[in-house]
């Protein structure tokens, strides 16, 4: 390499063995994946595309796997395949290999129609699965059945009962039956506990995978590595150094087409009580004694149990103008489409540090990020406060990145300071690396029996304990959402609350993702 030229080093050779700490064995034999609610939105947009990507990467072997769609809608195998086809690869970039992969994948899918509470449909489903197991099971194989409930939670109890009675795996050689349940898992503490009891009577906790797709995002999965494998963070990650933490979710579109569902739940149940709270756990938890799923989940539960009751003056609710124009939303809906909530963790590490959770629909941008703001430097000889505080930002999406905002000398002859950043932008640093979709990883985890990135029953209970009193006050109309303009930052009161909580915005500083 000639002097003066830059060289982008390929680091593939530094790749290490995957870090996993679970006690499962390598399994083979027939694998049946049953998508219940196969006619629905989640199934076509997320579940089947995730299965397709796993298939393409060799994680689902055609000689072992068969996929079943189940729903009430009366359609043929081919009709289901045609509904899904367009979501598997983008129209623009489909190569002949993509087309061939899609065709082969779709041939693995069979559709069974039936109700969610009648034995007839589930007996038929069981027969189809069994026939396929007989045709695919190698002598030493074991039968594995994964039921993915892409369904409204109202039908979970009856569907689980039907699976338990008619569709469990019956292999004498081992194998398993697992169920994946989607959020929202309950509407408050009581309903969630009731649902947990109903499902808990039918399945062991080790068979239940409560999915929260934020736990499958690349940079969420990176949080434990960042915090516990890097010496620089260890001494800084506490109340002595950190002023506040923000965990933010913004969407630049409204409830489009999902108004009926959304109005029953609202932004706190849809995003904050699950996705953002799960992220908070990983940011705030203590170091687990190992990477075993139970050790990690034990630590998450401890953090949740240390959260103080939410105070009304630390909450701002908003509803975007035009939300009630949706015919499925009542005219006088009190449902928030935006909320900022401050959580306070009562423990030695975090006492006094506000965790600001903010989520909103129909805002001015789409992004999700964690923003850790550090305290001011004591005895600042450079007078650089006006340039802002140190911040460590983890951008979950879009354009995954981590960057540290820090003060440096302005290059040049003068001694003056300026805000800059140390930037690890994934698109630039990991060129050519495809970041898997959250659902892809999580489905693979269920096949491998790894519950680390799934919500355990006591975690769920602790999460509902935090938000249920506030949610009931909102449901009773004691707290009202403030109006905001679609395409704005949300209600101005939310920014005022941030300031009151001690967040100092760096005016005039905008992080620009580096270009390739
Ligand atoms: N869509 C998304 O982006 C996301 C969805 N989720 C969750 O995933 C689950 C499925 O979501 P989604 O696919 O959007 O839901 P859908 O409303 O599309 O429902 C899925 C299927 O369930 C059946 N169904 C719908 N309503 C009822 C009902 N009242 N009683 C019985 N069956 C019904 C329908 O199938 P049929 O009539 O053919 O039986 C429908 O095709 C939900 O729990 C949702 O909260 C979670 C994250 C994101
Ligand atoms: O669970 C949900 O998540 C999506 C946002 O998911 P993302 O991965 O695109 O950030 C949200 O739109 C939806 O309301 C909610 O139910």
Automatic annotation (TrEMBL):
Q: List its EC numbers.
A: 1.1.1.49
UniProt cross-references to PROSITE patterns, sorted A to Z: G6P_DEHYDROGENASE
Domain Glucose-6-phosphate dehydrogenase NAD-binding, by residue range, is 34-222
Q: What is this protein called?
A: Glucose-6-phosphate 1-dehydrogenase
Q: Which family does it belong to?
A: Belongs to the glucose-6-phosphate dehydrogenase family.
Q: Which PANTHER family match?
A: GLUCOSE-6-PHOSPHATE 1-DEHYDROGENASE, GLUCOSE-6-PHOSPHATE 1-DEHYDROGENASE G6PD
User: Where is the protein situated, by its record's location annotation?
Assistant: Cytoplasm
Q: What does this protein do?
A: Catalyzes the rate-limiting step of the oxidative pentose-phosphate pathway, which represents a route for the dissimilation of carbohydrates besides glycolysis.
Q: Which UniProt keywords apply?
A: Carbohydrate metabolism, Cytoplasm, Glucose metabolism, NADP, Oxidoreductase
Q: GO cellular component terms?
A: cytosol
Query: Example GO biological process term?
Result: pentose-phosphate shunt, oxidative branch
